[in-house]
Amino acid sequence: MAGLILVEEGDGIPIVLQIADGNTGLFPQAKIRSDAGDDLGTVSLSHIANGLYQTIFTMTDDPYISATYIVYTDAGHTVESDIYCRDVDTFLLIMPSEYKADVSALETKIDSVISTLASMDTDLDFVKSIEGGKWQLTGTQMIFYKSDNITEVARFDITKDGEGNPTMRERV
Q: Each residue of 52-68: pLDDT tens digit?
């Protein structure tokens, strides 16, 4: 099964092949190639259990490398199996300094979003409280109550222009 695996230079890459039918009498190898197609070597995979074969290859400084799995039916690696198809995994080189800086910047943005959401939550609670209860105009003040119609949420002064229209609101 082909895949893309992210690794750092010098990491040991697990070169792993699972034979679906569990065959334990095979001799798989992986041909390792650079992103430019240069041959970086061929590694033999050892049987671990139940048709699982593996070995370790050290990641180079190439932007990516590929491992092409070839299953042989003989220990001399001369007869390729006509039952098991070739498969490829790709290993992408990641630079720790680059992704750690990206992660740090992302964490800062996430913290900012969390802070904004917390502020919005407080504002939303305030709006819900005002909308949930009665509104009462008393003299030049508008009083807002929670849904229990007893607990005061806010109070605003209302001023009027020369024609008696409300012109300004100030929270008291």
A: 999 999 988 888 899 99
